[in-house]
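Researcher: Good morning. I'm working through a list of sequences from a screen, and I'd like to move beyond sequence-only analysis. For each chain I'm collecting a predicted structure so we can compare shapes side by side. This is the next one on the list. No need for commentary yet; just the structure.
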Amino acid sequence: MADQEQAVEKHLSITKIYLKDSSFESPQSPTIFRQGDWKPQTNLNLRSAHTPQEGNHHEIVLTITVEAKENDKTCFLIELQQAGLFEISGYEGEELGAIVGSFCPNILFPYARETIASLIQKGGFPEFVLQPINFDALYMQSQQQRAAAEAKEAESH
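Model: Good morning. Structure tokens for this chain:
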């Protein structure tokens, strides 16, 4: 009977890539520009969210926050939501999880990186290059953390 089953056709395509939200703050300007050396500490925070839509469409939102501080004062703060609408069919479980948790954020990241670099430059600050992110490793790490939490929960019962 297995040979009579039709193979499920797998499909993955990008429907739309768009900027969902962005914010740039420079609370210390213009005094920050009169200071000498520019050597801020930069903090990066990122996360992604998946929201199924009608049919086989899925919205993936990559949220990136970049904060530069010098002497415990915020030089600039950027919050950006780069989103994409993807058509995904034929994938389930672990495979679908890897697509929405790693593959799609990896597609969105270059768009977010360019927008962040542009906002920082337009804010009057030196060029900022956001380094590549290994979304595969981040996804695997989140899966391991989830499995460890589930194992701990099962032990406590």
